[in-house]
């Protein structure tokens, strides 16, 4: 009985934390904070348990024919999201009812604002999305936002606009080659893009817009998913283990625009940071407001290069969503470069998803690790790893695995040190 009460209370708190403020009665949307705090761990676990229980129940009662049809049709929603996002529909619909307005904008007025010619098809697309909680329809073919559709706006603090753009284009197309990769071993993305890998594809002039979306997507993930990496891990303990009271250096290898490094530096006020990535990424990062304004601008250095060749010297190395891009032999090479550059008594912090042991499944929300694992194979011939697989890669590169920290988010931390 008390367990049931505890679970119910946990779910109520979880609803407050996770759902925040949503739609008002008139259809207005109040954007909830990106992630100013996290609910207690027991709330997160209770929320995950509920979602998994509901998913399991649904799987049991849904006829197998309907399940297969539902899975086959899922990609239609992806393209509907991409269509409205690319056309600027979310920005053409206000978050709140304008002063003096008696009704939400009609689909005709939205189409006029964005220059769409097929008004009826736009209505049908918005109707589809409204049927799954993305946008809200009112009489007279009028639409307002929901908390989900608001995330498609570029000005939302937790925007997912670039994430939608990224997954719906070349990444989406790469999956069409999965059967070929299974049959031949050739990477699916390369097969579907004329022999070009992901990075060669992005570096072509015609695909610069997609590259920008890809880079922004990582920044979007950082804003909404990075909190647990800092709040659920004892960075001060790691700094003490390193034993360097002065000149402590944290290197974010393949750190993109530096969202993770910024939060780590805030957690370690005595440390300086090195953001290491390809030159095109570093040039964008240098102009980021987080590094040009505020206290962190005096504590950051930028270096460009390839971690396949070298990494800068540092005490603590952070590698978030890097190793899952690569097969085991390349990961060993990357980590060997880290080991050679690491200062005495340094630490390696790998941030990635964690696969469950064979025969078990994560059912992680919103994206299972099994799905992420297959995506990395299709796009880059990479993989997600279990704790056992991380240990094998670490040991092959001359590291010993010290700990695994499970966070309240979808990414977890694997800590290592040079093997003695």
Helix content: 40-55%
Q: Please identify which CATH superfamily of the domain at 226-368 and 381-418 we are dealing with.
A: Vaccinia Virus protein VP39
N-to-C SSE string, H for helix and E for strand: HHHHHHEEHHHHHHHHHEHEHHEEHEHHEE
- Residue windows where pLDDT falls under 50 for at least 5 positions: 1-7, 16-21, 31-36
What value does the Rg take, in angstroms? 23 Å
Major pleated sheet:
7 strands, mixed
Assembly state of the chains shown: single chain
CATH secondary-structure class of the domain at 226-368 and 381-418: Alpha Beta
Cα distance spanning the termini: 52 Å
CATH architecture of the domain at 226-368 and 381-418: 3-Layer(aba) Sandwich
Give the strand tally: 9
Domain O-methyltransferase dimerisation: 70-152
GO molecular function, one term: O-methyltransferase activity
Pfam families: Dimerisation (PF08100), Methyltransf_2 (PF00891)
Domain O-methyltransferase C-terminal: 175-400
Describe this structure in words.
One of its GO terms (biological process) is methylation. It comes from Acanthamoeba castellanii (strain ATCC 30010 / Neff). This is Omethyltransferase domain containing protein. This protein is α/β, with parallel strands linked by helices. Among the domains are: about 65-95 and about 105-155, Winged helix-like DNA-binding domain superfamily/Winged helix DNA-binding domain (Arc Repressor Mutant, subunit A, Orthogonal Bundle), CATH 1.10.10; about 225-370 and about 380-420, Rossmann fold. Helix content is about 50%, strand content about 15%. It has 21 helices and nine strands. The protein has helices spanning about 1-20, 40-60, 65-85, 90, 105-115, 120-130, 145-150, 160-170, 170-175, 180-185, 190, 200, 210-225, 225-230, 235-240, 260-265, 280-285, 290, 330-340, 370-380, 385-395, and strands at about 135-140, 140-145, 250-255, 270-275, 300-305, 315-320, 340-350, 400-405, 410-420. The strands form two sheets. A seven-stranded mixed beta sheet has the order 5-4-3-6-7-9-8, sandwiched between helices. The chain has a two-stranded antiparallel ribbon with strand order 1-2. β8 and β9 form a beta hairpin. α1 crosses α2 (about 40-60). The radius of gyration is 23 Å and the shape is globular. It starts with a helix and ends with a strand.
